[in-house]
Amino acid sequence: EDKVVQSPLSLVVHEGDTVTLNCSYEVTNFRSLLWYKQEKKAPTFLFMLTSSGIEKKSGRLSSILDKKELFSILNITATQTGDSAVYLCAVPPRGAQKLVFGQGTRLTINP
Amino acid sequence: NAGVTQTPKFQVLKTGQSMTLQCAQDMNHEYMSWYRQDPGMGLRLIHYSVGAGITDQGEVPNGYNVSRSTTEDFPLRLLSAAPSQTSVYFCASSYQTGPYEQYFGPGTRLTVT
Q: Which of A17, A21, B68, B76 has the fewest Cβ atoms within 10 angstroms?
């Protein structure tokens, strides 16, 4: 069964800290991994990592993919209160036109 | 572009009632899907469609029906609402016939009493 597991489920840090969110996966014929940020409403797309693109960076956010160990991490440096959100990781199994989501990590940044 | 729109934003139903959650997109996306989100469980796929006239089941399809008569619209029908269907429902779409970079609607919060 395809599975995506995120850790930790919840994280509280102070503004300015650096955080690392984890996503491990077990899917048939891996092809890509996606990260989304969900504030109060709909998830919004952050990154997609594939076999040919195992590292992505956008401002203070960066993500890497380890295909051998079957996990990805999302790093956020110099966190701000606006980074408070649920971060979701998702993987599409090959041959299945769907996304399998992890449970999400709820990140809270305190001023 | 309005993107992905969903109506209603909130709904309260009594057990046994039926209703339709509406979803529309104006991006000419072939792929559309419905998810439900429950606390601690992430997003779970209910049904999806790879184009007009084509639908398929996701992880948790029981109690829900869909149809796709146009590219733009993908309504989700609850046949006989149950308290277990209390959840937040998201519709999403993507350009490719596949789930990459899905664009999500604002969600519908449904409570079944």
A: A17
